[in-house]
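Hey, sorry to bother you again with one of my protein questions. I've been puzzling over a protein and I'd love to understand its fold better. Take your time with it, there's no hurry, and the full record follows here:
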Amino acid sequence: MPYAKDRNARLYYDDGCGPCRFFASAAAGLSRHRVRAIPLAAAAAEGDLAGLSAEVRYGSAHLVYGTDLRSGESITGPLVGLTLGDRWERVARNAPFVDRMLRGAYRRAWEARRARGCGADTRKELSPRDPGPPAVLGP
């Protein structure tokens, strides 16, 4: 099982969003040091997420383990394996109802996050490669 064996998985999350911080802290705590929670705006994210546009980067959570990058609701199965162990990851992978439930919970949480105004680029400086989101004009 590749997920639980990778002791260097990194979960990138939106540090400007309270529920996101709670989710990332819970995942890191439950993982017994298999997952490191890192804010999306951190310098450490540049290497792993450099190929993503600002919209994609700040639009969802990302899980990096080994050379594999998962984004959005596709992080749920591997994250279950990293936090709760191999047995629960197999249940999440092999039971379609559980997989749908986990992905649906992620989707609802991320929709609520977007409704709250989270998911914006929170970096102080933008690199020349990434101009960031377009400015909003008007009142």
Notes: The longest helix spans residues 96-115. The beta strands are 9-13, 35-39, 62-65, 68-71. DSSP finds seven helices and four strands in the chain.
